[in-house]
Write a structure and sequence with these properties.
Helix content: 25-40%
CATH topology of the largest domain: Dihydrodipicolinate Reductase, domain 2
Number of domains: 2
CATH class of the largest domain: Alpha Beta
CATH superfamily of the largest domain: Dihydrodipicolinate Reductase, domain 2
Number of helices: 10
Order of helices and strands: EHEHHEHEHEHEHEEEEEHEEHHE
CATH architecture of the largest domain: 2-Layer Sandwich
Largest sheet: 9 strands, mixed
Shape: globular
Mean pLDDT: 96
Length: 344
């Protein structure tokens, strides 16, 4: 049966709107039909690039019945206001992570969606990396033995680019800095692999950035399963993204480049998964089948709308990841281990 494409509009129209629009066009289940930003020039450029029309006001955008769903890439602090308005107009929403900048807004979003009847998918896409899917499969099948810990890291140079006029420089609008921007990717993936997170012990610091937000963090987490996991993040250094899963029968690990993150089809080499088994067995290296996490997340969103299914990362799961972020902040301030349950 032919899939009836979801008619989707983009709202926000910054750099990330283009990343997701490109990903939508790489798939076959979304038709980009409209766009909205308060900035006319951004609307014009998006229309020219993707062949859509525009809405000249937010009210016009909300009242456009042709739009079935919206890809929302507005600033984190604006998510609650926009999700409430979009859901009230009956539009399904794919919201770039995090779900919100604070827990109060996130709880309102969870309540809003539960009463609205629309689908909300949150863009925690890293769990859809082909190598992360393969790791989770190895873990669930027991091929790495019993898991004891998982180490991960995500770094970029973006913290060095912050200037006072940017919202990411404001600790009220971007609380925890690098943690809510980068660490949260691994937090979601670690929850996907090992289950809910119970406790957090963390250190967050502002070291090199000129903004009043954190650009370095180390977070140790204990899952309900007893597995320990770690996320280190830096916002003032070159790109790094890697993970190491330690089991009694093997240690699985990978690193990916920035190009493999954005669009692996354009990378000169595949993502590789290494499994170290010496002295218990032979080491292996496997090339991952080509995947596309942004495309796949959007395709899943479209399927959930047409088939009335629950998105893999819905509002409740996204809220849990945000709770871990704020628990990490409290742990750093109090210099104590903090229960995530207190932040849910």
């Amino acid at each position: 049966m032919t899939f009836k494409k979801i008619r989707v509009a983009s709202m926000g129209l910054g750099r990330w709107a283009n990343v997701l629009a490109d990903a939508a066009e790489r798939g076959g289940k979304i038709q980009l039909v409209s766009c909205f930003s308060r900035t006319k020039e951004k609307r014009k450029k998006f229309m020219e690039t993707y062949g859509t029309r525009e809405a000249n006001s937010f009210e016009e955008f909300l009242n456009d019945d042709e739009i079935e769903a919206v890809i929302l890439t507005t600033p984190n602090y604006a998510h609650r206001e926009h999700i409430q308005a979009l859901s009230e107009s009956g539009k399904h929403i794919y919201c770039e992570k995090p779900i919100a900048h604070n827990l109060e807004d996130s709880k309102i979003i969870v309540d809003t969606i539960s009463k609205s009847g629309v689908k909300l998918a949150v863009g925690h896409s890293a769990r859809r990396l082909s190598v992360c899917r393969e790791m989770e499969s190895l873990i669930s099948k027991g091929e790495l033995g019993e898991i004891s810990m998982n180490e991960s890291n995500f770094c970029t140079e973006r913290g060095l680019e912050l200037t006072p006029d940017l919202w990411r420089s404001d600790p009220k609008l971007n609380p925890t800095g690098v943690v809510i921007q980068l660490s949260i990717h691994h937090v979601d993936t670690l929850r996907f692999m090992h289950g809910p997170i119970k406790e957090v012990t963390a250190v967050l610091r502002s070291i090199h950035t000129k903004a009043d937000v954190e650009d370095a963090s180390m977070i140790i987490m204990e899952h309900d399963s007893g597995i320990l996991s770690y996320v280190g993040s830096g916002w003032s250094c070159p790109w790094a993204f890697h993970m190491n899963v330690h089991g009694t029968r093997g240690v699985a690990h990978f690193r990916i480049t920035g190009q493999q993150w954005r669009d692996p089809s354009k990378s000169p080499q595949p993502i590789r998964l290494y499994i170290d088994r010496d002295p218990l067995g032979e080491d292996t290296v496997s090339d991952m089948v080509e995947g596309d996490m942004f495309r796949d997340a959007l395709e899943d969103f479209a399927i959930c709308i047409r088939e009335d299914k629950n998105p893999e990362v819905n509002e409740k799961i996204a809220h849990e990841s945000l709770a871990v972020v704020h628990a990490a902040s409290e742990s750093s301030k109090s210099r104590k281990t903090v229960s995530v349950r207190d932040f849910l």
